[in-house]
Structure formats: structure tokens, C-alpha cells
Amino acid sequence: MEPQHKTPSRWTIKDVLEWTAAYFKKRGITTARLDAEVLLAFCLSADRLFLYLNLERPLLTAERVRYRELVRRRAMREPVSLIIGKKEFWSLPFRVVPGVLIPRPDTEILVEAVVQEIRSIPEPRVLEIGTGSGAVSVAIAKENPTAEILATDVNLLALETASLNAEECGVSGSIDFLCTDLFLAISQRELFDVICSNPPYIPHDTIPTLDPEINFEPILALDGGPDGLDVIRHIAVHARHFLKDRGALILEMDPEQENQARRIFTNLTGLAEIRVFPDLSGKARVIKGKLFK
Questions:
Q1: Taking the CB of the first residue and of the last residue of the chain, which one, N or C, has fewer CB atoms within 10 A?
Q2: What's the pTM value of the predicted model, to 2 decimals?
């Protein structure tokens, strides 16, 4: 895996980055240079700025050995965040582990919509369905310390990871975690100002066509059924029983599902004031509706 023309003792940071980026590119990795930098910075217990300030620094033998293993894993299309064990979301560091969905930047749109909705509500109650790593609930708690949040997941490993993330981000006192499949273990006496979720919304037949990195993530958190809308429908149908008057249902979706999601919100739940929030590319990413009882 090392260039043959280089003397091993003279492998510099610059040499390693250039070779690794080219290797990743040949393997079909579109973020080749970035991944090479992130992995090398992790290997050296440094940041990416350190790399650029020390491009001519030779790597020690132990560092080369460790980095070679990281490169091997990435070349097999294991996500960088799983390799290094963390992912930044909402400018916060979240630990990620195999078996728990990795937070995506697009999901920050969901957080923005919830934070905006509860801004003027004293001590708002928020229910997050399918919390995964806890990224959404933790981000909401950081933005609104008065919020009381119930975060649920059917995956015990996800709940353990989310609880650790909440503790490490200093918001564990704002979030209760509950193991349940959707609404099953939630009492209808509990009413919320907002119900939010980043549910599984990828159509079943689409999953095999996605980038190989998807194979390292839990299928339960991705597969939304034949048209990708099974869980969205279920949440929309049952949310009215757990929302306060004028409470809001806020869900992430695929941009291609906007029209179907609008129909689901209108026809199945009687929600009004339906609004769609675009992601950074301008595509519909989050849908919100308010319940008027």
C-alpha cells in the first residue's frame, strides 16, 4: 500500500496524504482528500491544521502502521465517522458506533424547525421518535435548556449511545430516554408541544443502489418500506393522540416525497398550516403541520 519509490523512513505527511487521496479516488470515494486528512489527523491525535503546518514531517513506523489500517478500512467503504468513532453535528461532537445511525448534516434542518417552533413556549415538551445517536434531542436541548424531551428508540444500543452523548454534551438532565417501537410504550396522557422524527424513509428497493457505506448502518433506521413512507404514515396517523392543541408534527423526508408527505399530513391527520423546510441545496427536507383540536 506504500509507494515503492519512497524510503519508508522518509514518508512525510505530504507524501502520505497525496498517495492516500489518489488511492481513495481510484476506489470510487468522492471525498478522497478530506478522508485522507481526517484519518491521518486522527491517527496522529491532531487536527487537520497540524497536518498543513507539518507537511514535511516524516511519519514514525508505528504511525504508518496505524494509518495503513485506517486506510484499509476506509478503502472497504467503512464510513470515516465509524472508523474514528465520532461525528460532528450541530457543532457538537457525537460518538458513533456500529449499529447506530450516523447523524447527517441534512438532519440539522429538522433541529432548526423544532427549535423555531418551541422558541416562545415556556418549558416545551418534545417527543423525538427514533433518536439514534441522540443528535437531534441533544441539539434541541442545547438550544433550549427549558425543553423537556422524551427521546425514544427500539434499539437499546442506540439508547445507550444517545444517553452517553447527552451526558457528554451536558444536557442529560433535559432528556429522558425510552425503549419503545414508535408510540407503543407512551401513555396517551402524555401530550407534547412537538413530535419530531428523522424516520426511515428510503424505499426498500432503493437501498441496494446506494453507496456501499450504507451497508455499515442499521437497516431498520433506513428502510421505509416499498415507497419509503411506511413509518411516516404511522407517525402521522398516531401523532394526533399525543399532541397538544396547536402542537406540531415535524418530520424529515426525502425531497422526492414532498407531495406524498403533504397528502399524508392533510388527509390522515387533519393537520393544518403545513410548511416545508428546504435543505442547503434548496430541496424539501422537513415537513411540519400543526394540530388544531
A1: C
A2: 0.91
